[in-house]
From TrEMBL:
The lineage of its organism: Bacteria, Pseudomonadati, Bacteroidota, Flavobacteriia, Flavobacteriales. The record marks 175-176 as: Cleavage. This is Isoaspartyl peptidase. Keywords: Autocatalytic cleavage, Hydrolase, Protease. The keyword Hydrolase applies. Gene3D superfamilies: (Glycosyl)asparaginase. It comes from the Bacteria. It holds the Pfam family Asparaginase_2. The active site is at 176 (nucleophile). CDD domains: Asparaginase_2.
Length: 309
């Protein structure tokens, strides 16, 4: 039987053991474990990699612990604008959304874009219209309200700064969640979702919604989901760069991903990490920050969840 498996992440950044309580760390681990378990069971029952990554991301979007969906950070205007993307490695089909609000699960909207539209990425208020046409669930503004997120926004807004959800003062992370999976039929898929930057302005869009940058899947190489300082990931075309190194330089997933995360990004000043899986079910989780919320489970009875290095 072919190997199959799933890996997930909940963001990377300056996550300090000394500043995180044991109960908070355990809360993160429990949600991470639930996310990859849901995805793994989908694969185990013969489900597709697309279904697995979708279900895993939904678990994290529904948790206020992560900067995606319910836990999305506040924009400069005090709103929640979310980005997401999903990609099918078999047909290289993809769907993404940028700057959407009020959608309970942006990853479901991304999948609807991929499967039920002629577009790859849609954005803004018009995306809400498409979501209604597709019968997707909306949530009221108070669903996205979190006291910690509100205070975080107030600290940043009072200084008129735009902040990643990761710095030492906030003891937080590059706020993104993602999943990559390989199913029993040998098909790869990737999905990523985020609430973006704290106090972001001007309709800023990061890497998560951009195919080949924050999200990529190709059955000839790998599936990748990124988390980090989006501007640097965009300039380095990170997710596709890993795939390209595998295809054209014949590097392994481990070699390609570590080169990009540990060498290419730092030279530019970029911080963050990624998760990846290849056709043999090999999983990688490189990051150049203090920590990354991450976990995986595969058909070889291997299971892992961690936050710190």
């Amino acid at each position: 039987m072919k190997n199959y498996g799933i890996a997930i992440h909940g963001g990377a950044g300056t996550i300090s053991k000394t500043n995180m309580s044991k109960w908070k760390a355990e809360a993160y681990r429990q949600v991470l474990k639930r996310a990859y378990t849901v995805g793994y069971l989908t694969l185990h029952k013969g489900g597709t990699s697309l279904d697995a990554v979708t279900e895993a991301v939904i678990v994290m979007e529904n948790s206020p612990l992560f900067n995606a969906g319910r836990g999305a950070v506040f924009t400069h205007e005090g709103e929640h604008e979310m980005d997401a993307a999903i990609m099918d490695g078999k047909k290289l089909k993809a769907g993404g959304v940028a700057g959407v609000s009020g959608i309970k699960n942006p990853i479901l909207l991304s999948r609807a874009v991929m499967q039920h539209s002629k577009h790859v990425i849609i954005s803004g208020p018009q995306a809400r219209e498409f979501a209604r046409e597709q019968g997707l669930e909306f949530a009221p503004k108070d669903y996205f309200y979190d006291e910690y997120r509100y205070k975080q926004w107030q600290r940043v807004a009072s200084k008129d700064q735009v902040s990643l959800d990761h710095d030492e003062e906030l003891n937080k992370k590059f706020g993104t969640v993602g999943a990559v999976a390989l199913d029993k039929k040998g098909n790869l898929a990737a999905a990523t979702s985020t609430g973006g930057m704290v106090n972001k302005k001007y309709g800023r869009i990061g890497d998560s919604a951009l195919v080949g940058i924050g999200t990529y899947a190709n059955n000839n190489s790998c599936a990748i989901s990124c988390t980090g300082h989006g501007e640097f990931f965009i300039r380095a075309v990170v997710a596709h760069e890993v795939s390209a190194r595998m295809l054209h330089k014949h590097e392994s997933l481990k070699e390609a991903s570590e080169h990009v995360v540990m060498h290419v990004l730092p030279k530019m000043g970029g911080k963050g990490g990624l998760i990846g899986i290849d056709l043999q079910g090999n999983i990688v989780m490189p990051f150049n920050t203090k920590g990354m919320y991450r976990g995986f489970r595969n058909s070889r009875n291997e299971e892992f969840v961690n936050i710190f290095k």
